[in-house]
Task: inverse folding
């Protein structure tokens, strides 16, 4: 498998395990993979897939800002408050956290197989009949059994459980990354809609003045009723856009309420006072693709799932090898408690079993595990390609959105000047209403386009920081090797 050759640059940890080496990776994508040493063969199918060395659409210089908590870079207190609420109350995160706890318990269950099983028993009896002794009989006993991990069946199961636990942790981290982005983008859209709603309302006030002027001039015989009807049309169209914007704002705010785990209402009211769309910092010069992929929890989770599937192949193959089991018992029985421990009996037994024939069941399990591994490998490759696509596309979006903001700022300045001139000239009777109508529509369009471009710029920043692995911290999701309670 030819991916990366530098163990500090990404995925050599997985490749080394696949080749049977035994390394301790620390902060590499899946530190727990080192526990697969000396276990059943963990060898996924070969692939020619390779991670590119450089980005196609990005400057190779490193990013100068920390994007772990990128929402703070938007400098919007309400947005930051909503993100923190999502961390605490999002129900999808709660479900994923429960699945992580379940996986943790399954890992503890797998590790318990290294230890012997001990059971105890105790009983009392009394015979009945004419010649039965007039005493109770008592017995105590204990049985122990231990399966020797001779060919790695237990250790392979533990390796798979550890990888499953890591995959569940990365799944939770990735869900957090996605939900943070959803909340942030929805908050930016709500800011945009609130701004556009205020623009529509302020424009409506101007258009009502224009309608009043047109009616006065018509009554004075200075213009025909055409001006009045055009003014009425313009005002009605703007008025009709207000309920639509209010509905969109309510729907967006309600979606945020669901994301932060509370009923609708408070969030909608929080966005009603219009405030500027947050302005993000400019990001340029990303780390190499391997470093970015190392920060992506979805890629690391897919990698962990690949290792788990590979370990299960070894576990299935180990069923074809001999099984060694040790067992023993100790016990005593007597009539009466006083001499219960006078005679103690014990025994130790060892047994070896070997599968001879099962109608192809075990081979079918091996084939199934190998097919699952090939699917996990394809899922990992898909995750890598998706991550690369996210970064490249978001980088282009960020640049184009920033350019659109600059252009729309110039267009708004020109449209505002044109509207001022057209309004004053119409009031003075120096131009017709059609000129004023055109200028007013251009101003409204320019104001909305600028707000939309600002929202696109902020959303592109959020998507880019998401794509680069922002929105989660590895310190908040410890790997099994670092979990002292297991």
Result:
């Amino acid at each position: 498998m030819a991916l990366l050759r530098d163990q500090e640059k990404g995925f050599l940890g997985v490749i080394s395990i696949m080749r049977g080496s035994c390394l301790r990776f620390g902060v590499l994508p899946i530190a727990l993979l080192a526990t697969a040493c000396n276990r059943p063969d963990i060898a996924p199918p070969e692939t020619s897939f390779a991670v590119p060395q450089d980005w196609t659409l990005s400057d190779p210089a490193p990013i100068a800002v920390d994007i772990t908590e990128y929402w703070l870079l938007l400098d919007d207190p309400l947005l930051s408050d909503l993100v923190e609420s999502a961390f605490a109350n999002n129900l999808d995160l709660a479900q994923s956290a429960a699945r992580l706890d379940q996986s943790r318990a399954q890992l503890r269950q797998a590790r318990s197989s290294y230890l012997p099983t001990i059971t105890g028993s105790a009983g009392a009896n009394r015979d009945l009949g004419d010649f039965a002794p007039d005493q109770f009989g008592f017995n105590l006993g204990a049985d122990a059994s231990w399966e020797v991990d001779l060919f790695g069946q237990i250790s392979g199961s533990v390796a798979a459980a550890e990888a499953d636990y890591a995959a569940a942790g990365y799944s939770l981290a990735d869900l957090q990354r996605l939900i943070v982005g959803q909340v942030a983008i929805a908050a930016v859209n709500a800011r945009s809609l609130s701004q556009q709603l205020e623009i529509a309302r302020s424009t409506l006030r101007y258009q009502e003045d224009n309608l009043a002027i047109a009616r006065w001039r018509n009554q004075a015989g200075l213009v025909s009723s055409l001006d009045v009807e055009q003014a009425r049309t313009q005002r009605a169209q703007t008025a009709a856009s207000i309920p639509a914007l209010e509905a969109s704002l309510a729907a967006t705010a309600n979606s945020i309420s669901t994301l932060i785990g509370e009923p609708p209402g408070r969030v909608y009211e929080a966005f009603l006072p219009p405030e500027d769309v947050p302005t993000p910092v400019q990001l340029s010069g990303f780390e190499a693709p391997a470093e970015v992929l190392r920060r992506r929890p979805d890629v690391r989770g897919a990698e962990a799932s690949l290792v788990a599937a590979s370990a299960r192949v070894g576990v299935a193959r180990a069923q074809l090898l001999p099984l060694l089991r040790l067992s023993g018992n100790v016990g005593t029985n007597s009539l009466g408690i006083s001499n219960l421990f006078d005679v103690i009996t014990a025994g130790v037994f060892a047994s070896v079993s070997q599968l001879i024939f099962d109608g192809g069941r075990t081979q079918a399990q091996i084939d199934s595990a190998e097919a699952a591994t090939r699917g996990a490998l394809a899922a990992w490759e898909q995750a890598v390609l998706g991550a690369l696509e996210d970064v490249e596309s978001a980088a282009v979006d960020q640049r184009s959105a920033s350019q659109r903001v600059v252009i729309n700022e110039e267009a708004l300045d020109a449209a505002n000047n044109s509207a001022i001139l057209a309004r004053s000239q119409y009031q003075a009777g120096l131009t017709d209403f059609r000129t004023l109508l055109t200028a007013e529509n251009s101003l409204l369009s320019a104001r909305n386009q600028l707000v939309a471009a600002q929202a696109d710029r902020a959303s592109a920043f959020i998507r880019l920081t998401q794509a680069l692995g922002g929105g989660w911290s590895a310190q908040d999701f410890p790997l099994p090797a670092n979990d002292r309670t297991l």
